[in-house]
Write a structure and sequence with these properties.
19 strands; single chain; alpha+beta; binds flavin-adenine dinucleotide; 4 domains; Uridine Diphospho-n-acetylenolpyruvylglucosamine Reductase, domain 3; Alpha-Beta Plaits; 24% strand; eight-stranded antiparallel beta sheet; Uridine Diphospho-n-acetylenolpyruvylglucosamine Reductase, domain 2
Length: 448
Amino acid sequence: MGPAERLRKLLGDDYVITGWPDILPYTRDYTVTRIHSELRDGEEDWFIVAIPGDEEEIMGILRIAGEEGLGVAIYAGGSNVVGRYTPRERVVIDLSRLCSIEWYDEESGVVAVGAGTIIGELEDWLNRRGWTMGMIPQSVSVATVGGLIAMGGIGMYSSGYGGIEDILLGLEAVIPALGHVRIGPSPRRDLPLPPERLFTSSEGMIGIVTKAYLQAYPAPETRVRRGLLLPSFEEGVERLRRIAHHRVRPDMIRLLDEVETQVTFGLEGAALIYEVHGPVDMEEYVEARARALERLVGEASGIESVEMWFEERYRYMAHLKRLYSAGIAVETMEFSPLWSGATKLYVELRDILLGMDGVVGVSAHIGHIHPAGCGIYFTVLIEADKLHEVYQDLWRRAVSVAAKYGGISHHHGMGMVRKPYIELEYDGWVEAVERIASALDPDGLLRP
Ligand SMILES: Cc1cc2nc3c(=O)[nH]c(=O)nc-3n(C[C@H](O)[C@H](O)[C@H](O)COP(=O)(O)OP(=O)(O)OC[C@H]3O[C@@H](n4cnc5c(N)ncnc54)[C@H](O)[C@@H]3O)c2cc1C
């Protein structure tokens, strides 16, 4: 009996997919080089898709894959953009059936959720009950809870609610060397190598997260959304730094560079958009926070049409499709410079990228602020027919500049795209990562 038959016996015929065209949705993630590549002959032979319903079945799949000498790739929402999902010659585990949601402890605001649950569905479930997670990535309609944990994700309301590391209170997982593990929810933990930290940004290398315990908050009933126009991006960076240092933080803040300000609002300068949340009947509190922030920002004119930006934000996929049809590939790159290097990184990298053959446009924004620095996000437009030619060089150059000013990633993860450069940041630590992963997954099933 071959691996597909063994998996059918374990899961039932409905939960194993092989062959063309049924495997088609599993051939891609959102990595730009994958979006712009042709399917090759024989691709259908590369992998078998298994859709488990519980941890027992995941353990069974890992056992069969190990005995058959096949690797295992995890497909959750398929929205990662750094080539982390690699289906070739593997068993692909589709986690979509792990999608239950339940209150674990409503008094504490803790929700227990299956790792395959789509973030938008969890947020809708919470909203219907008057709660929110405040974790709204732009990929909210596709990305899953497990994917967000594994890829170290963050949402647009990070200033108020934090990243996945701030809301992940515990988890359950299957580890190849150990089987089932559970780390119950706790508001803070002081024990060695807290597993929820180890799994955050683990990129599927140490095990498969099956359930997460996440913090939820009462949904805000009062909110203020405003936009200010600043003379330049450089000036905006300085003001963001002041806001971060003085801890007068909104729930969401974003600074667009001159290119994005022109495209979005048709204005000259750099747009600063922010949102402040509060409970019902707390307009004074929300207004006071907004005014304090405006005092720190200093002189600036208001932007009237800011609501439009909030509405347009989730139509990103439609914009991407239009550019795709026009022969333009869109790559996004995020880095985390210290405040002292943020403007230098922006100017230096923008100029380098614009000087590259095939690059037709570069813009950037800052969407996440931290006390020591920020998350800066570049959008690079590339002629699609030159993409594969310039891609490696583009990343090599970008990462070497980013490493001079801070971190080489912010929330998209390492994947295959950043893997060659990880030693720029992990001086002497790569070996430790490999040893930890080998101890938990000795046969290397989960490591492409
Ligand atoms: C348009 C767009 C906008 C985006 N915006 C944001 C954003 O605002 N913020 C942000 O952080 N990211 C963003 N991303 C990137 C992407 O959504 C995240 O990386 C997301 O966390 C991936 O989740 P996923 O469920 O799609 O995972 P997948 O892409 O399916 O999986 C990626 C890898 O994660 C690992 N993995 C997934 N699930 C598990 C699990 N349960 N256990 C163990 N390992 C697992 C596996 O190694 C897997 O191959 C965006 C992507 C797109 C396309």
